Amino acid sequence: MQELREMFYTDTPDKRSFKNGFVAIACAALLTFSAPLASNAQSLFATAIKVNDRSITNFELAERTRFLGLLRAPGDHKKLARQQLIEDRLKLGAARSVGIVPSREEVEAGMDEFAGRVNLTRAEFIQALNAGDVSEDAFRAFVRSGLAWRQLVQAKFASRIGVTEDDIDRSVASSGTGATIRVLLSEIIMPAPPPQAAAVQERAERISQITSVSAFAAEARRYSASASKARSGRLEWLPITQLPAPLRPILLGLAPGEVTDPIPLQNAVALFQLRDIEEVQVGEPQYAAIEYAAYYIAGGRTEAGLAEARKIESRIDRCDDFYGIAKGQDPSVLDRGSKAPEEIPSDIAIELAKMDPGETSTTLTRANGQTLVLLMLCGRTPVLEEEVDRAELSLGLQNQRLASYSNGYLEQLRADARIIEK
Asked: 178-188 pLDDT, tens per residue?
């Protein structure tokens, strides 16, 4: 709670600028003979952008900019504020044109839900916003537009996103061994040993609010410990069946651009952003067993530990090679075996999902970060006959279609609109 207060209450140049502007407006109202101050007030409430017949004022832009700053949204807050407010006008206008206007109760429920994401009540959240010179009205407008758009998209496209049994059948491999859904993800794996766990969790909560692929990529380059860091966290296409079972419905519940809530791992926190999802015609197998080797190196993710891992990696090509590395050492330094997917620790399962046989990873640690795990995938044993989770497939297909319709409709509204920026 104290950390959140510091986030909202910390003074910044933008806040001081707004406060100065606010004082100028107050003075203009009291001292009507002061032309410069009166002009400043008029400028602040003047139209900055015209979207069809709806205006966006300089005041709204300034307040949305501060709001994004308080939320620590990634990117250029001024630019993002302009983009969001333009889209808000388009969304609200489209919703009102078909009679969709969220009720006061619905908006307040949305405000409650939003505040709850940072473990605050609506009143506490509004108090924190007010301290940062952001009004309750600005918060309410932000929530109202998102809620109206969600209701509009559901009403407009619900009949088109229905998934039939034939749709699911076409998404199942002809052999019946797996789903034909694959996902394109970006990842951030952040080490979180006990002394850093609280700070890492707070950072992960902030990153989980990101909806921009470029912003997530920047965070991955800065904070991720995974090998994908060099690729801005981007992974290649992965069959959904190759990922740990508990993770699948979480990912299928995302729209492209959305990020999972922080996923706790052993001594780490993971975040995944869905970049795309698609149906493919060739079925992917589900797996009865995964074989892997984990070799434990003292020192954790220190330079010495990572250097030792690189030295070993240069000497191994397959899992059997670890026996030579571990020869003469305590047997506990090597964990080699074949396990059912549900028996594999979640952090190891996530790493293995990204690997081909013979590939290695040094992302994970044990013993509160003091031991580095050199992990290698040995192989996967597919299930020959397995009942497909048709409900899971249906959810994934619906979310994919709804996101596509929503994005396309917004682009159409923007293309048809008269947008004049002053």
From this structure: 446 889 999 99
